[in-house]
Write a structure and sequence with these properties.
The protein is an alpha+beta fold. The chain contains 12 helices and 37 strands.
Length: 601
């Protein structure tokens, strides 16, 4: 028996027009207070479907039908590229073998109930269609048709798909931008991060063909914020923000998604459905998504406004930090994810790196004391000096520039650069008089469909609290990159009245000194931590429990245990503290996944 795989484009997607209904997307210009502003739209030829060319196809026999058992995956080589061959339920499937997000090998991921989960960051893909079902990332996997002949498995695939290992889902385009009043839109998205972009893309993927406008205070089109620190510290000084863009400028042109940069919304009038911008411009909307994220907290001490004191928020901030910190003395305030990651990246570049933190141990509230101490030890072995259980009392200057950081403990630290990472607050101040429900901490309150208390107004991302199914629908704030993606998708589907509720399992990661900690679940309020492995060797898995139930898991050098546990939690199953030893043995040491479906012991 031979298995063949070929790229299949659904007929309804093939029939979609290759050009925008208005022929080409011309630049749109409007004037506010006499100043011309440009939407990010420009003429851009839309490429025809690359899979229509038969010369682009390759076919190869990859294995015998008995080479794979049900529930197994294998990377197979077609000569000009690889595919992931999967057998589940007696059927063969073939898709791209690399996760489109950061290129993780999916063969090392988790296969469960018709989808494969990335071992690194938890993105999930349907094995039958290749479509992305959970995030992070924007693109889906290419799908290849599998045929069996004479007990051999053949794959027939596009060479281009094998090389790119990604597929952007077909999208609708705006019917005719020329028919719209420039001061009105069907959908207005405030914020151009992951939540806002995924919302816009999902609307187009679902066939929405009315006008979509995104607005952002940033100078740039949406970019990959988790890549911000690492990318800038590893690149040369003349690198450009476009290198971490989530989508190129041409993408927004092609799919008629308008982006207004350096535009701040000052107020929202929910009765008249109008957003008022800081410069006086007003835009009417039919549906509204608020995805403004958060604002970094500033220090409250003397000298906080001094030159060379930074919150890393934009590419420009990070570029200045790395330029000024090279071979200099750096003080980082706050052992947050931001603070610790920046410390790790600067440790080899700066003359000295000092980290000031109010808590006794980094990450204590998030990862627990034992994991926090293991991470702290790793940092200390890489020349990072910690000053714990103290705060900054003053920043001193010399000739207008930072010279010293004075701690409340009395210690004085030499400092040429200070990076502040002491947390953030939701960027929702402009909504205080709007009538939109905001809680006591400033978070926008939404339901499982990302709807606010105002009809037609949705909210997503770091600025919201929402019911988390994993924690019995407790209202939580989950400021993770993956969750922002899913929020945006759920909001878009419910703008279209699909009635879709959010049920994803939170997944995050952090990278320091070449090592990654992966985390799934929501461990807020955990009362115990069960650790398997060796903390000293930085090879461990930690299970966070509350009242005997596992609510979160973290690991280092133990892939893909976190993705496996995420699949268990996503299936609605409960892991008890007494089950931890069995979970680790079956999932990691034996590779047996039967306990996911409840068929194993």
């Amino acid at each position: 028996v031979e298995v063949k795989i070929e790229v299949v484009i659904p007929e309804k997607e093939r029939s979609k027009e290759e050009m925008s209904p208005n022929g080409k997307a011309s630049p749109l210009i409007y004037k506010v207070n006499g100043t011309a502003r440009h939407y990010h739209l420009e003429e851009h030829p839309i490429a025809s479907n690359p899979y229509h060319n038969p010369k682009d196809m390759v076919e190869a026999s990859v294995c015998h039908v008995k080479d794979l058992e049900n529930g197994q995956m294998r990377e197979v080589d077609l000569g000009c590229g690889k595919a992931l061959l999967i057998k589940e339920g007696g059927e063969f499937h073939a898709v791209g073998h690399k996760c489109p997000h950061y290129g993780a090998p999916l063969v090392k991921g988790v296969l469960s109930k018709g989808r494969v989960r990335c071992p690194w960051h938890g993105a999930c893909f349907n094995i039958g269609t290749g479509d992305i079902e959970d995030f992070p990332g924007l693109d889906s996997l290419p799908r290849f048709q599998v045929k069996i002949e004479k007990e051999k498995v053949y794959i027939r695939a596009s060479k281009q798909a094998l090389q790119t290992q990604r597929r952007t889902k077909m999208m609708a385009k705006c019917i005719s931008l020329s028919n719209y009043n420039l001061s009105s839109t069907n959908v207005l998205i405030i914020g151009a991060g992951a939540a806002g972009l995924v919302c816009a893309e999902t609307l187009r993927q679902e066939g929405f063909s009315d006008r979509i406008v995104m607005c952002t205070m940033d100078r740039h089109l949406p970019y990959d914020r988790p890549k911000l620190k690492k990318w800038l510290f590893l690149q040369s000084m003349d690198s450009h923000p476009e290198q971490i863009a989530l989508r190129p400028k041409e993408f927004f042109c092609t799919y008629d998604i308008e982006v207004l940069t350096e535009m701040q919304v000052a107020a929202v009038d929910i009765k008249s459905k109008v957003a008022v911008f800081k410069d006086g411009f007003k835009m009417e909307y039919n549906k509204l998504l608020i995805a403004t994220g958060n604002t970094p907290k500033a220090l409250s001490c003397k000298g906080k406004e001094m030159e060379n004191v930074f919150n890393i928020r934009t590419p420009e901030d990070a570029n200045r930090v790395v330029k000024l910190a090279t071979s200099k003395n750096v003080v980082i305030v706050g052992a947050s994810f931001l603070g610790m990651e920046v410390a790790a990246y600067l440790a080899e570049r700066a003359h000295s790196v000092s980290l000031v933190e109010l808590e006794e141990v980094p990450f204590k509230k998030f990862f627990g004391e034992r994991v926090g101490r293991a991470v702290m030890k790793m940092f200390e072995s890489n020349r990072v000096k910690f000053y714990m259980q103290t705060e900054v009392s003053e920043l001193r200057e010399q000739e207008g520039k930072l010279k010293e950081v004075v701690l409340k403990s009395g210690k004085v630290l030499r400092a040429d650069v200070c990076v502040v990472g002491v947390g953030a607050v939701p960027a929702t101040g402009f909504l205080k008089q709007s009538g939109i429900n905001i809680d006591s901490k400033g978070f926008i309150v939404v339901n499982k469909m990302m709807q606010t208390n105002i009809p037609g107004v949705f909210a997503a991302g770091d600025a919201v609290t929402f019911p988390l199914a994993l924690r019995n629908n407790k209202k939580v704030n989950v400021p993770h990159w993956q969750m922002a993606h899913m929020h945006g998708r759920i909001a878009a589907l419910n703008m279209l009245a699909h009635g879709t509720e959010i049920s994803t399992v939170p997944f995050l990661w952090t990278a320091m000194f070449g090592k990654s900690i992966r985390y799934a679940g929501h461990g807020e309020g955990f009362d115990d931590v069960v650790i398997q492995g060796d903390l000293d060797e930085l090879k461990f898995v930690a299970f966070y429990t509350k009242s005997d139930e596992v609510v979160a898991v973290a690991s280092m050098n133990y892939d893909p245990i976190v993705s496996k546990v995420a699949e268990v939690l996503a299936a609605g199953r409960t892991i008890r503290k007494r089950d931890v030893d069995t979970v680790v043995f079956l999932s990691f040491r034996t590779g047996d996944m039967s306990w996911l479906t409840g068929k194993g012991s």
